[in-house]
Write a structure and sequence with these properties.
With 185 residues, the chain is α+β, with helices and mostly antiparallel strands. The protein has helices at 3-12, 26-39, 51-59, 110-124, 140-148; strands at 16-20, 67-72, 75-84, 94-101, 130-136, 152-163, 166-176. Strands 1-2-3-4-5-7-6 form a seven-stranded mixed β-sheet, with helices on both faces. The structure holds coenzyme A.
């Protein structure tokens, strides 16, 4: 875990833990995601999702595609995950990253700690070559967070998202994490 993580736990005297998500975390993760749907263009989902829908998302993230949660005094304050970059076989060494922090806990370093932890996992794996994030161009917090962790801007797709009555540009940010690739079959 990052130094921020340890410092926060010490300073706030709270029980902090970043751990693999469990099915029991689905309600908390759904709430965090639904707030992002309702109040931001961080995601282009428009209608709130049910826990059952998020359960399907969760089940698609086993073993090779981990989800981590940040738990503070029994509250899930955020989560992050690695998803397949695409369904084509040739994308097997590439992953998409998602990261969401509860609106009431933003700006407290939790996003950075989650990012640190998920990239630690990505780097430790032999089969993750690159991590890609799709970020709305106006999402300054997410862009700053990604740049802080070495992600580089790889391009912008104009007006691909439509939400809250207007079009939004989407940026691609990328981090190369591992040069060692297993031989492809
Ligand atoms: C993006 C997000 C995960 C960041 O999490 P967080 O816990 O607030 O981030 P941190 O407190 O660790 O801050 C990390 C860095 O991000 C940047 N940042 C955070 N909030 C910011 C804001 N409102 N404006 C500009 N930069 C911001 C800063 O560079 C900050 O580093 P600093 O504190 O040293 O200056 C969080 O804002 C979030 O969940 N947003 C909604 C969902 C989302 O946009 N997810 C990403 C989809 S691509």
């Amino acid at each position: 875990m990052g130094p921020l993580f340890l410092l926060q736990c010490l300073l706030k005297e709270v029980k902090c833990m970043i751990r693999y998500a469990m099915r029991d975390d689905i309600p908390a993760m759904t709430k965090i995601y639904n707030d992002a749907i309702k109040y931001s263009n961080a995601t282009y989902d428009i209608n709130p999702q049910s826990e059952a829908q998020r359960g399907v998302w969760f089940d698609a993230h086993q073993e090779n595609n981990p989800i981590l949660v940040f738990e503070v005094d029994d509250k899930i304050v955020g989560y992050t995950g690695l998803s397949p970059f695409g369904s084509d076989d040739g994308y097997l060494y590439s992953v998409n990253l998602c990261i969401y922090v509860d609106w009431s806990n933003r700006g407290e370093g939790y996003g950075s700690d989650l990012m640190f932890a998920i990239l630690d996992i990505a780097r430790a794996r032999q089969d993750v070559h690159t991590v890609v994030s799709e970020i709305t161009s106006s999402n300054v917090a997410s862009i700053a967070l990604h740049e802080r962790f070495g992600f580089e801007f790889r391009g912008l797709v104009r007006e691909v998202g439509y939400k809250f009555g207007e079009f939004h540009d989407m940026c691609y940010y990328q981090l190369m994490v591992n040069g060692k690739i297993l031989s492809q079959t």
